[in-house]
């Protein structure tokens, strides 16, 4: 099975204090520590496990600049077979549709049975997987937390409202957006990173992909960010003190006063 996993280089929130820049157009990105998007890491692990069970190869792809190559190498050190960097000045400022357009072009340059994305990335939109599937006219499932190979089909489990599980049969080729918790991503050691340090990672620009540069990037974006800001703080929290029984009694009293209990 040929599997393509779409990954993204994002600020590591565990290693950074995220602050909005002076003009409110973005976060302060100087000196930030970056890593692979958490949801994408689970998608790569799932792809590796599928490949190990049924054979084939795993390719990781990202849209970004030269620095984005580091996340491809990390996922190759994790066990992916190949990396592909979609890099062009024209791609800068792409919205979700622009990113999906570039990924679609990359998919069509290969022959993939399964395309995986993370359920969401740092912007929280969760839109690229669905857009990519629609552009390719492939079956799609989101919030996937279970994948089983069943011949030329997949049995796919989805997390739905109320903590319930939904199981579907989906034909390949298809696109799946992977939820965290589907597996336990393996540890990437220094030895693995050194092993792939000199592996050549091909780059593709707009011309290589056959994409009109004006349809992607800031010029082609239909969604533009207007502002970044930290919400104003509301009233401070009230700390309840006393024994457990006293705290419960006070909490019930407050809920009644606020209309939460009758």
Describe the protein in words:
The chain has 262 residues and is an alpha/beta fold. It has a single domain, classed as Rossmann fold (3-Layer(aba) Sandwich), CATH 3.40.50.620. Helix content is 30%, strand content 24%. It contains eight helices and eleven strands. It has helices spanning 38-54, 69-78, 96-109, 128-136, 190-196, 206-209, 217-220, 244-257; strands at 2-6, 9-11, 34-36, 57-63, 82-86, 114-118, 140-150, 153-160, 164-171, 174-178, 203-204. The strands form two sheets. The chain has a nine-stranded mixed sheet with strand order 9-8-7-10-6-1-4-5-11, sandwiched between helices. Strands 2-3 form a two-stranded antiparallel sheet. GO terms for molecular function: electron transfer activity.
Summarize the structure.
The chain is an alpha/beta fold and 262 residues long.
């Amino acid at each position: 099975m040929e599997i393509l996993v779409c990954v993204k280089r994002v600020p590591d929130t565990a290693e950074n204090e995220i602050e909005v820049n002076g003009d409110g157009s973005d976060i302060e990105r100087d000196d930030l520590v970056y890593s692979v998007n958490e949801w994408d890491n689970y998608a790569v692990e799932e792809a590796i496990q599928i490949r190990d069970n049924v054979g084939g190869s795993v390719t990781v792809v990202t849209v970004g600049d030269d620095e984005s190559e580091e996340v491809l190498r990390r996922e190759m050190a994790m066990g992916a077979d190949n990396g592909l960097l979609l890099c062009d000045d024209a791609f800068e400022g792409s919205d979700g549709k622009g990113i999906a357009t570039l990924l679609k072009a990359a998919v069509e340059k290969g022959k993939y049975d399964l395309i995986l994305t993370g359920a969401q990335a740092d912007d929280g939109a969760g839109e690229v997987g669905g857009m990519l599937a629609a552009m390719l006219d492939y079956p799609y499932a989101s919030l996937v937390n279970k994948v089983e190979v069943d011949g030329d089909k997949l049995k796919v489990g989805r997390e739905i409202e109320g903590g319930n599980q939904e199981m579907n049969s989906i034909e390949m080729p298809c696109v799946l957006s992977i939820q965290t918790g589907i597996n336990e991503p393996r540890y990437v050691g220094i030895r693995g990173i050194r092993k792939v340090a000199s592996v050549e990672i091909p780059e593709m620009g707009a011309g290589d992909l056959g994409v009109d540069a004006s349809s992607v990037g800031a010029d082609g974006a239909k969604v533009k960010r207007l502002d970044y800001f930290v919400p104003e703080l509301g009233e401070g929290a009230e700390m309840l003190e006393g024994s457990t029984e006293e705290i419960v009694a006070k909490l019930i009293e407050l809920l009644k006063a606020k209309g939460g209990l009758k």
